[in-house]
């Protein structure tokens, strides 16, 4: 069915509303916008050939060229510049820019009150274009950044900037899986790495002559111009699309896998799907567990050249002997399994801060069921949410051959009064709640059934699940 739907979308130059797709291919009769949108997203959100725009219309993705992948000049590049407080391992200012076709600022904001900076730092880093500092908005800024980076190709100046922003994103149950470092991109086009890794050195090397941009806002713009220059060098070197870029980075990797069960071939053959991965030592004990939206790209990043490996990455590379993966159908499923495995194995290189200890408040979800893709064809994953009590993951076949058993389980789950809680229940509720909040309005939004609105009747819940699955 996907092939027929995507072919139809490609024929419509003005975009296709979800109601049209639901009527034409899913045989819905006069569907409302919300139901049609949820059903179509459930089918197409993993199909890279099409996307849903801000106007709610479905369109084909950018054209591809030989070698596979999106054209390098049409890829969703985003340059990320962070002013980092190294003492506190926190971000003082973050700026996101798109380099092509022209530099454009997506986000630029102070995450701390610039009034707390020294007078010299304020004079140097503040910019007239900075919006007035707002503490409440600053508290939500990392969450906004995480949303803006979803589905993009972030470029960081250094591993240090990536590590700090990734640490901050983890606090809202969001991670940055797919990213590039400046020196990695230079390596792909056979240019010498930048040393030391500074914006001034990058600009001098690639744009010619010494350049400086004092304010944090202008530094983001300069990083954007440097990245655009590198993309031009990729084109000149014959790297026309993202598939060729990934191949160049794999071919240029110089990591020595001698005496390890992990091999470069094994990593190159990992699936381009969401999942959980775990590095083990020679005894088979886990040393690090993580989740990824794209398993291959995430694991590749541990062994790519980057020019300045932080201490944690160096320890992982040295100690990692084996690799295990668990393919998931969605990021949310991966987040839940990641939490469960870290809780069970307590890998030494994982942060041991409990999710329930993280700062921040959120509005709890009502009794509800979320429908997610499954890694295996013919199945779906459902997440059952019992408000303020616990969650349950339940896979089911889309032919509903066990409908009676599903109805009984739903009845027992939502009508059994207070469910006995375990120490993991509230952290898992927080994971799901924050994920739903972060993806409620985006392309990653999953169909969600409000059990309370249906009166909690198991038969009605199953009917709603069917309407979003078949």
Notes on the protein architecture:
By secondary structure, the protein is an alpha+beta fold. It is built from 18 helices and 14 strands. A 5-stranded mixed beta sheet has the order 5-4-3-6-7. Strands 13-12-11-14 form a 4-stranded antiparallel beta sheet, with helices on both faces. It has a 3-stranded antiparallel beta sheet with strand order 9-8-10. Helix 9 packs across helix 10 and helix 15 (331-345) packs antiparallel against helix 17. It starts with a helix and ends with a helix.
Question: How would you summarize this macromolecular structure in one to three sentences?
Answer:
With 470 residues, the chain is of the alpha+beta class. The chain is 40% helix and 17% strand.
What topology emerges from the helices and strands here?
Blueprint: H1 2-11, H2 18-25, H3 33-44, E1 50-52, E2 58-60, E3 77-85, E4 90-98, E5 104-110, H4 119-125, H5 135-139, H6 141-149, E6 153-156, H7 159-170, E7 180-181, H8 182-188, H9 199-207, H10 216-236, H11 242-251, H12 264-268, E8 275-280, E9 286-292, H13 295-303, H14 311-319, E10 322-327, H15 331-345, E11 368-373, E12 379-386, E13 390-397, H16 403-414, H17 425-439, E14 448-450, H18 458-469
Parallel strand pairs: 3-6, 6-7
Antiparallel strand pairs: 1-2, 3-4, 4-5, 8-9, 8-10, 11-12, 11-14, 12-13
Helix pairs in contact: 2-3, 8-10, 9-10, 15-17, 16-18
């Amino acid at each position: 069915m996907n092939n027929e739907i995507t072919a139809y979308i490609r024929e419509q130059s003005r975009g296709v509303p979800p109601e049209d797709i639901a009527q034409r291919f899913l045989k819905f009769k006069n569907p409302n916008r919300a139901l049609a949108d949820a059903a179509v997203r459930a089918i197409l959100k993993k199909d890279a050939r099409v996307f849903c725009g801000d106007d709610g219309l479905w369109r084909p993705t950018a054209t591809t060229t030989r070698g596979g992948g999106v054209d390098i000049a049409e890829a969703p590049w985003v340059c990320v510049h962070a002013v980092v407080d190294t003492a506190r391992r926190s971000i003082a200012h973050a700026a996101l820019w798109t380099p092509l076709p022209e530099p454009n600022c997506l986000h630029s904001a102070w995450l701390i009150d610039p009034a707390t900076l020294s007078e010299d730092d304020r004079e140097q880093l503040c910019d007239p274009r900075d919006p007035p500092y707002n503490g409440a908005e600053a508290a939500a800024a990392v969450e906004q950044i995480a949303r803006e980076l979803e589905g993009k190709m972030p470029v960081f100046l250094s591993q240090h900037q990536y590590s700090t922003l990734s640490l901050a994103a983890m606090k809202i149950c969001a991670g940055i899986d797919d990213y590039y470092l400046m020196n990695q991109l230079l390596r792909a086009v056979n240019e010498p790495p930048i040393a030391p890794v500074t914006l001034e050195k990058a600009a001098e090397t690639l744009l010619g002559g010494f350049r400086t941009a004092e304010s944090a806002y202008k530094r983001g713009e300069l990083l954007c111009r440097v990245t655009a220059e590198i993309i031009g060098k990729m084109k000149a070197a014959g790297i026309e699309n993202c598939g060729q870029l990934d191949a160049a980075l794999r071919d240029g990797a110089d990591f020595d896998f001698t005496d390890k069960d992990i091999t470069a071939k094994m990593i190159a053959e990992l699936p381009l799907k969401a999942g959980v991965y775990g590095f083990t030592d020679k005894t088979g004990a886990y040393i690090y567990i993580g989740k990824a939206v794209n398993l291959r790209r995430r694991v590749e990043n541990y062994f790519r050249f980057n020019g300045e490996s932080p201490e944690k990455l160096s320890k992982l590379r040295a100690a990692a002997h084996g690799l295990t993966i668990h393919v998931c159908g969605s990021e949310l499923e991966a987040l839940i399994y990641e939490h469960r495995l870290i809780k069970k194995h307590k890998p030494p290189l994982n942060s041991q801060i409990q999710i329930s200890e993280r700062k921040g408040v959120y509005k709890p979800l009502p009794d509800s069921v979320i429908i997610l893709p499954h890694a295996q064809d013919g199945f779906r994953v459902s997440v059952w949410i019992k408000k303020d009590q616990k969650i349950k993951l339940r896979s089911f076949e889309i032919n509903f051959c066990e409908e009676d058993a599903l109805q009984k389980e739903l009845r027992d789950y939502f009508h059994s009064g207070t469910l006995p809680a375990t120490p993991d229940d509230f952290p898992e509720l927080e994971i799901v709640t924050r994920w739903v909040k972060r993806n409620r309005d985006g392309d990653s939004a999953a169909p969600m059934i409000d059990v309370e609105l249906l009166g909690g009747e198991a038969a009605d819940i199953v009917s709603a699940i069917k309407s979003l699955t078949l």
